[in-house]
From TrEMBL:
The keyword Flavoprotein does not apply. SUPFAM superfamilies: P-loop containing nucleoside triphosphate hydrolases. CDD domains: ABC_DR_subfamily_A. Keywords: ATP-binding, Nucleotide-binding, Transport. Belongs to the ABC transporter superfamily. The keyword Nucleotide-binding applies. This is ABC transporter domain-containing protein. Gene3D superfamilies: P-loop containing nucleotide triphosphate hydrolases. It comes from the Bacteria. InterPro entries: AAA+_ATPase, ABC_transporter-like_ATP-bd, P-loop_NTPase. Residues 1-228 form the ABC transporter domain. One of its GO terms (molecular function) is ATP hydrolysis activity.
Amino acid sequence: MRGLVKRFGPKTAVDDLSFEVSAGEVLGFLGPNGAGKSTTMKMICGFLAPTAGTAVICGHDVLEEPIAAKRALGYLPEGAPAYPDMTTVGFLDFIAGVRGYDGAERRERVVEAMAKTRLEEVTHQPIETLSKGFKRRVGLAQALLHDPPVLILDEPTDGLDPNQKFEVRKLIKAMAADKAIVISTHILEEVDAVCSRAMIIARGRLLADDTPEGLRSLAASRNLDDVFRQVTTGEVTSNA
Ligand SMILES: Nc1ncnc2c1ncn2[C@@H]1O[C@H](COP(=O)(O)OP(=O)(O)OP(=O)(O)O)[C@@H](O)[C@H]1O
């Protein structure tokens, strides 16, 4: 990401963010509500035009070569939106078609994505009738259907029960070896569970960028909640 800026009228949601993520890294994107996490992810994915700066995905500038950049990435948007009247398999088949697959390969991609995200039991169920956790898994399935080298996942475990959280984290870790993965989360335990690195942003600015262990050392208590509070509010927790 090179100098990403997003302004909405007088409000600066993202204020000159630059960073790199390499294959093999799972970067946790942390910050309070309204910090600019989703806006940054939308710009990385070419969903929202930056006011300034750009994102380069596997050598493709998302503004200059949007199709090549989008081919290299999978994106789970905030809230995992999908077409509610489609069935799980119908939606994933539609996505496979959009991604350019045809014939047997198209069917294989759908079956594989459903297996990875454990969607088989809701194959023919309309998405609007799925529980929140299953909807999120449909969102994940469409993001990884084309096995992209880059995954941008906006709160991938939001709304999942503890067992589903465990499964999704396991899946992210299993994919991490050869992909660059960015996840946003409010759940700090997720940083320990899956991230090799974490960034804390607030008011659109980068405040910390380190390994989970490095971040812990910022608070005397070594507790990530305390680190988050200290970095984003400047307040040191008294019982630290
Ligand atoms: N389309 C828009 N128009 C105006 N302001 C917007 C728009 N989208 C986002 N914002 C504002 O930009 C800021 C950053 O929002 P963003 O959704 O990126 O934060 P976030 O870190 O993802 O928050 P959360 O953790 O609550 O999801 C917020 O103040 C938000 O109100």
